[in-house]
Design brief:
alpha/beta; 6-stranded parallel sheet; single chain
């Protein structure tokens, strides 16, 4: 081991070469540990999805809220809103025509008494575009009845309106990947 800065730099460089050589000599037929496989699969999924944005349809009874939700979703370059609807019939028509990856459904109270509930929208979307995932929005984590009803009908996840923008956009991506999504505060209320 040298005392000069130049000798230390050479020593560091040689250690790096030795590590690279050792890595190249590893037996590639050995199976990867499960944590590495999981990470590798996630990286492959992310690389694939990076080329193709996740397509989203927004179903919301209130026009201004629907427009705001659309703007928030489109602020993420990995997401693209391809359709909008205000009720179950329109959601079914648009889902069958566009086949979005994820359908984001506004809270029950946004649809009014004479329009449709989240449950009817989930069932309509499932019937017209079975491969589309659905994410319910709830006013609060206390809206447990509507959330559990929607999940029982086949919704893939739920998130409260009080969640952060990052949590909301992350929930869309998780649901698109096939992961169930329920806000932690909702889980606490259910349990």
């Amino acid at each position: 081991s040298g005392n000069t800065p130049k000798m230390k730099a050479i020593e560091v460089m040689m250690m790096g070469r030795k590590r690279r050589w050792q890595a190249s000599r590893m037996d590639s037929t050995r199976p990867l540990p499960s944590a590495c496989r999981s990470l590798a699969n996630s990286m492959i999924r992310i690389a694939f999805l990076a080329d193709k944005p996740i397509t989203v349809m927004v179903v919301y009874g209130m026009g201004v809220a629907r427009a705001g939700t659309k703007l928030l979703i489109e602020s993420d370059p990995g997401l693209e809103v391809i359709a909008e609807a205000i009720d179950a019939e329109e959601a079914a028509r648009r889902a069958s025509g566009h086949h979005p990856d994820v359908v984001v459904i506004g809270p029950n109270r946004s649809f009014g008494a004479d329009l449709h509930t989240q449950l009817a929208i989930v069932e309509a979307v499932r019937g017209s575009s079975p491969q589309s995932k659905t994410l319910l929005m709830s006013l609060t984590a206390d809206d447990v009845g509507a959330i559990t009803e929607g999940l029982a009908a086949g919704a893939d996840g739920s998130i409260a309106l009080g969640s952060s923008s990052e949590a909301f956009l992350g929930a869309i991506k998780l649901v698109a990947e096939g992961h169930g999504q329920i806000s932690g505060d909702v889980v606490k209320k259910i349990i």
